[in-house]
Amino acid sequence: MIQKIKGTMDILPEETPLWRHIEGIMREEAERYGYGEIRTPTFENTELFVRGVGDTTDVVQKEMYTFADRDEGRSISLRPEGTASVVRALIENGKCSDPMPLKYYYIMSCFRHEKPQAGRSREFFQFGTEMFGSASPAADATAISLANSVLNRLGLKNVKLHVNSIGCKDCRPTYRKALVDYYSSHIDSLCDTCKTRLDKNPLRLLDCKNPDCHALAAGAPRTVDHLCDTCKGNFDMLGRALDAMNIDYEVDPAIVRGLDYYTGTVFEFIAEGIGSQSTVCGGGRYDGLVSSLGGPELSGIGFGMGITRLILALRELGLDSLEAERPEIYIASLGERAMIKGLEIAERLRREGKFAECDVVGRSLKAQMKYANKKGARYTLIIGDSEIDAGIAQLRDMESGEQREVSLDSFSL
Ligand code: ATP
Ligand code: MG
After folding, report:
1. How far is ligand 2, taken at its centre, from the CA of residue 279, in Å?
2. Is 248 exposed, middle or buried (0-12, 13-18, 19+ CB in 10 A)?
3. Which ligand places an atom closest to the C-alpha of 120?
4. Lower CB density within 10 Å: C or N end of the chain?
5. Nearest CA to ligand 1 atom 6
6. Number of neighbours of residue 230 by Cβ within 10 angstroms
């Protein structure tokens, strides 16, 4: 028996109605905010993610699915996230000179070789949005508002918004120094990974999940206390915009985000009661990314929302049961002639836009009715030779139990 790859999932017909409901809300909300859908390839040149996501990140160092292509020995990788691909597509398709801002959204699968657990898988599904061409906190507030309205429409009352600013290339160096000084004086308490991070990427120490490192992070210098005037002004304006839009938030110095490209505003929506993988949505500003991938200087702000984690949060509130669409009619038949008549009637009703099923197995009436019940058919119709000869049969309403006589060739629902 061949089994699925560890960390992947099958989404069965019982579950897809909920997925489609969630995805439908994402598409509708994104489009109401003027975002257009973009679809990019599942795999890209590895170099795109090394440069775009950052070669000191866990995602690139430990989690990417990378392999040699069959030709030219080129290295390619399954996408671990969406932003780098969207930026590449924007540059490659000459969109950088279009009227700004540009707003894109996507629903895509991403791949990371992580330790599988509830809310963390190796193939996962993300709703993401990117807005390019505005450095204003008004754009940050818009992105946050979009994520917030998706969560609101889903009914996720157990989710809280945490915001922070991690500064820009002007204020980062002073902050970085304060951080390195702080952690250097506690170096013996750091985990091995953090000891190496201290040189390369000290900001990452703040979101290390190791309990000792986590405890140290609480007393670490805060980015918000080291912002330059511009970053400080932007962060203040973001707060005023969110207040005006009536969006609740909390300033949280622990939010630094795992990918290298973030600058300025960063945020997460965190769900309560779903365990440790509780960030349902993470995002922020990435003003240096477009130019670092060969495009012009263009600001960006976006987020990624993990669909599996949303489902966990919905389940916590008992909001995760959505039924599959039910047949309006099931046509049971006895014998080959009736089976063909059943196909004919079902076909006619489907062309009228109805959801119709008929027997295609040729089994007993009892077995057919059991199937119709399981599918929750609203009406059933039973036909055999005598019904075909008379041209009429009994249409049964499965909810009320009432029957009425109908003409086989002309009835409708
Ligand atoms: P985390 O800190 O939880 O690992 P992250 O910072 O790595 O998250 P992002 O790269 O920002 O996550 O991805 C955006 C969102 O995608 C996350 O907030 C989360 O909801 C979801 N996500 C990320 N990695 C996974 C995964 N392995 N399995 C399921 N969902 C994921
Ligand atoms: Mg991660």
Report:
1. 10
2. exposed
3. 1
4. N
5. 258
6. 14
- CA dihedral of 121, 1, 66, 293, whole degrees rounded to 10: -50
Going by alpha carbons, the residue nearest to atom 25 of ligand 1 is 120
Q: Give 261's contacts (C-beta < 8 A, 6+ positions apart).
A: 52, 53, 54, 83, 286, 288, 289, 292
Atom 28 of ligand 1: nearest residue by CA position: 120
CA distance 184 to 201: 13
Asked if 91 contacts 51 with a C-beta cutoff of 8 angstroms, the reply is no
350: left (phi over 0), alpha (psi -120 to 50) or beta: alpha
Task: Work out the angle at residue 28's Cα, subtended by the Cα atoms of residues 26 and 31, and round it to the nearest 5 degrees.
Answer: 105
In angstroms, the Cα distances linking 335 to 356, 360, 379 are: 19, 11, 21
Determine which helix (DSSP H) or strand (DSSP E) holds 278, and give its type and residue range: none
CB-ligand 1 contact for 129 (6 Å cutoff): no
Concatenating the DSSP letter of every residue in 219-272 gives TSPPGGGG--HHHHHHHHHHHHHHHHTT---EE-TT---SSTT-EEEEEEEEES
Interval between CA 256 and ligand 2 midpoint (Å): 12
Largest distance between two CA atoms of the chain:
93
Residue in the block written with tokens 């009432």: 402
| Per-residue tokens: 220 | 């670490």
pLDDT in tens, the chain (413 residues): 999 999 999 999 999 999 999 999 999 999 999 999 999 999 999 999 999 998 888 899 899 999 999 887 899 999 999 999 999 999 999 999 999 999 999 999 999 999 999 999 999 999 999 999 999 999 999 999 999 999 999 999 999 999 999 999 888 889 989 999 999 999 999 999 899 888 888 888 888 888 999 899 989 999 999 999 999 999 999 999 999 999 999 999 889 876 777 899 999 999 988 888 999 999 999 999 999 999 999 999 999 999 999 999 999 999 998 888 899 999 999 999 999 999 999 999 999 999 999 999 999 999 999 999 999 999 999 999 999 999 999 999 999 999 999 999 999 99
* Nearest by Cα to 56 from 204, 209, 264, 208: 204
pTM passes above 0.90: yes
Task: Provide CB contacts within 8 A for 198, sequence distance 6+.
Answer: 180, 183, 184, 187, 190, 205
